[in-house]
Amino acid sequence: MAGLRQTIIRGGLESLYFSGAHAALRPLVGGVGVILTLHHVRPPRPDRFQPNRLLEITPRFLTRVIELLRRSDLDLVGLDEMHRRMIAGDFARRFVCLTFDDGYRDTLSHAYPILKAAGVPFAVYVATSFPDRLGELWWLALEAVIAKNDHIGLVIDGRNQTFPCSSVAEKRALYDELYWWLRRRPTEAETRDIVRNLAACYQVDIAAFCQDQCMDWQEIAQLAADPLVTIGAHTVNHPMLAKLPADAARAEMDLSRSVIEAALTVRPQHLAYPFGDPTSTGRREFTIAAELGFKTAVTTRPGVLFASHRKRLTALPRISLNGEYQQLRYVRVLLSGSATAMWNGFRRSAA
Ligand SMILES: [Zn+2]
């Protein structure tokens, strides 16, 4: 299914590009600016089973995207400047913000040198349990369990079930099925319990992913010292906020800001909701983020920014630079707003 979905999306991006429709539509759907979402930036790996590859692009592709943005008529701005323009209605020029989620070490080692050399501002949204080494990157634990086993046993709906996953195709299909099944669990605690049990059964160390892949506080401080960099909050434990009681969701957002402030002596003014799609973030979270005084908060709902988003600054859409679509022509289409307008049925972003 994932393969089919990618084929359809790629086909849509290709036809918007080669028909010229993206350029024709841009004045109508391009809005005032774009916030880009990135996760990992690192060299490609040869493994055939990489279900999380959508979350990574190569340093070479990032370099080419920056060159494209530099040549375009878009201003590359930080989140504070984006916020200022939104409030002031200063839309003389379209703008783009680069945002990196989670606080991976390759943001420092691979993305930062490229952005520093080009003088490009960017933001990093840090989930504080990751540098505190208490975080659970459970989607990576699931990947590791499936990668190193030929079949997986799991209790689903009270029944012990066995899933074969010896071939790459089976691994991909099983990852997709289990990932979305886990995302649909009614509570965050249930999702975590299942993955913890799975990891324990199949000798995968969940804590190791934090250690191996995420920056520690010293590395984050190194980034934060650069005026090009904005450190934003991304909750403490990276939960699906909508599945928590309201007070717990509020505490996740508020506490992460205080922890970052204590570590870096700078109080974050901007927030990214973990996962950020409608199943994990909604109106309740948008209200809480506004009540907590965040200047802006971003979702992962796809879309460009319109002037009207000034009234919904804690529910901003973004556009992901997806590792499955590392072609500059796709980036051109995405920046034009035409692809997301089409996906959103030409409604102005649902976020
Ligand atoms: Zn995240």
Give a brief outline of the structure.
The protein has helices spanning 2-18, 21-29, 59-71, 79-88, 105-118, 138-147, 168-183, 188-201, 206-213, 217-224, 246-264, 283-291, 328-336, 338-343, and strands at residues 33-38, 40-41, 56-57, 75-76, 95-102, 122-126, 151-156, 159-164, 229-233, 270-272, 296-302, 316-320. The chain is of the alpha/beta class. The strands form 3 sheets. Strands 1, 4, 5, 6, 9, 10, 11 and 12 form an 8-stranded parallel β-sheet that branches. A two-stranded parallel ribbon has the order 2-3. The protein has a two-stranded antiparallel ribbon with strand order 7-8.
Outline the structure in words.
With about 350 residues, the chain is an alpha/beta fold. Helices cover about 45% and strands about 15% of the residues. It contains 14 helices and twelve strands. Strands 1, 4, 5, 6, 9, 10, 11 and 12 form an eight-stranded parallel sheet that branches. A two-stranded parallel sheet has the order 2-3. It has a two-stranded antiparallel sheet with strand order 7-8. Strand 10 (about 270), helix 12 and strand 11 form a beta-alpha-beta unit. Helix 2 packs parallel to helix 13, helix 3 runs parallel beside helix 5 and helix 6 (about 140-145) runs parallel beside helix 8 (about 190-200). The radius of gyration is 20 Å and the shape is globular.
Question: Which overall shape is indicated by the principal axes computed on the Cα atoms?
Answer: globular
- Overall number of strands: 12
User: What is the count of helical runs?
Assistant: 14
Q: Ends: how far apart?
A: 25 Å
Could you name the ranges where pLDDT drops below 50 across 5 or more consecutive residues?
none
Please report which band the strand proportion falls in: under 5%, 5-15%, 15-25%, 25-35%, 35-45% or over 45%: 15-25%
Major β-sheet profile: 8 strands, parallel
Structural class: alpha/beta
Which ligands does the model contain, each kind named once? zinc ion
Supply Rg: 20 Å
Q: Write down the secondary-structure element order.
A: HHEEEHEHEHEHEEHHHHEHEHEEHH
Which whole number gives the mean pLDDT?
Answer: 92
Proportion in helices: 40-55%
